[in-house]
Amino acid sequence: MSESSYRNLMPVYPLIAQQIFDDYQVINGKCIDIGTGSGYLGIELAKITSLEMYFLDFDSDALHRARKNVVENELSNVVHFVEADVTSLPFADNFADLVISRGSLWFWQDQVKGLQEINRILKPGGIAFVGGGLGRYTPHTMRKRLKGRRREELEKKGHKGFLKGVELEELVRKTGIANCCLLSDAENEPGHWIEITKAKES
Ligand SMILES: C[S@@+](CC[C@H](N)C(=O)[O-])C[C@H]1O[C@@H](n2cnc3c(N)ncnc32)[C@H](O)[C@@H]1O
C-alpha cells in the first residue's frame, strides 16, 4: 500500500483497534497482527492494552517500516517482528490469544490454508478478526470518502475487488473451521470480516 493510502487511512486504525478492544476485551496475552504492513493497527491496539505484540509480514520492507513506527510510538508492550507467510506460521498450536489482520487476506496465495493456520495457532477460546474494511466506528462521511478513493485506486490497478458476502462465506466453508462468522462494518453492507472463536476443549 502506498504511503499516501496509509496517510488517508490513519484516522481509521485507532477506531478499528477500539472496536476490537470493545468487542473482545482481550487485553493481556499474545496478539499477532498478520500482514501488518506498516504496523498501524497493531500499534493502536498495543497502545490501549498490555498485549504482547507480534508484528508479522512476509515482506521484509514492510516489517522494517513496522519496526520504525513501533519505535516512534514508544510502546511499552513487549513486541516481536516476524517475517513469515501466513500459510506457514512459525508458532506452536494454541499459541495466540488474539489474531488480527486487516487488508491482507485478499493478497494471500492460499486463503484457505492461511485461515487454517490462524485457527491452528489460536488458543482454545482465542479470537481471530481477519478481513478488510474501515471498521464499525468509522463515521459514514469518512467511510464514503475513503471507499471512493480506494475504489479508484484499485480500478486503476485493474483489481477486481475484494471477497465479500457469499464469496467470503464460501471461503470460510472450505476451511472447515467451526465457530466462524462474517461481520460487516455497516448494516447495509455484506460481511467482509471473518471472526473465528476457537472452541474451548471440553
Ligand atoms: C494492504 S497491506 C495491509 C497492511 C496493514 N494490515 C494495514 O491494514 O494497514 C497487506 C499486507 O499483507 C502482507 N501480505 C500479503 N500476503 C501475505 C502472506 N501470504 N503472508 C504474510 N503477509 C502477507 C503484505 O506484505 C502487506 O504488507
Number of domains: 1
Number of helices: 7
Class based on secondary structure composition and strand pairing: alpha/beta
The CATH topology is Rossmann fold
Our measurement of the CA-to-CA distance between the termini, rounded to an integer number of angstroms, reads: 43 Å
Number-wise, the strands total 7
Instruction: Give the overall shape, derived from the CA principal axes.
Output: globular
From the 3D coordinates, which CATH architecture would you assign? 3-Layer(aba) Sandwich
| Biggest sheet statistics | 7 strands, mixed
Q: In CATH, what is the class?
A: Alpha Beta
The CATH superfamily is: Vaccinia Virus protein VP39
Mean pLDDT: 92
Roughly what percent helix? Answer: 25-40%
Given as residue ranges, the uncertain stretches (5+ residues, pLDDT < 50) are none
Rg over CA atoms, rounded to whole Å, is 16 Å
Strand content: 15-25%
Query: Helices and strands, in N-to-C order?
Result: HHEHEHEEHEHHEE
- Small molecules (ligands, ions, cofactors) in the structure: S-adenosylmethionine
What does this protein look like?
It is a single chain. The chain is α/β, with parallel strands linked by helices and 202 residues long. It has one domain: Vaccinia Virus protein VP39 (Rossmann fold), CATH 3.40.50. Strands 3-2-1-4-5-7-6 form a 7-stranded mixed β-sheet, sandwiched between helices. Helix 4 links the parallel strand 2 and strand 3. The mean pLDDT is 92. The site of S-adenosylmethionine has 17 residues, from helix 3.
